[in-house]
Write a structure and sequence with these properties.
single chain, about 100 residues, mainly beta, SH3 type barrels, globular
């Protein structure tokens, strides 16, 4: 698929762990190596919560940083996001951070 996402991209998509909630930001951890490449992605949640085990994105932003907020990746909040569920692409972070 020409419009598929790659490792390091992030987008808004529904949170499969919370019903009736707003979409959240998801960081793509794996895409090209999955059995259904271009149709689904293994992602970790992005958040503005500074919890002890979260990883601050910091200078790893390539495109899409909100300068008014500090973003963190929650590596324990992982989900499979379907391509059709992506609401809006937002940008990407470095592959090293991912």
């Amino acid at each position: 698929m020409s419009d598929s996402y790659r490792k390091g991209d992030f987008f808004w998509a529904p949170d499969p762990f919370r019903r009736s909630s707003n979409p959240r930001l998801w960081l793509v951890l794996a895409a090209e190596t999955l059995p259904y490449a271009g149709e689904e992605y293994i992602c970790a949640a992005l958040t503005t919560s500074d919890l002890p085990a979260n990883h601050e994105v910091g200078d790893a932003w390539v495109v899409g940083r909100n300068p008014d907020k500090t973003s963190y990746c929650s590596p324990w909040v992982v989900g499979t996001i379907k391509h059709r569920a992506v609401a809006s692409p937002q940008g990407d972070v470095t592959v090293d951070f991912t």
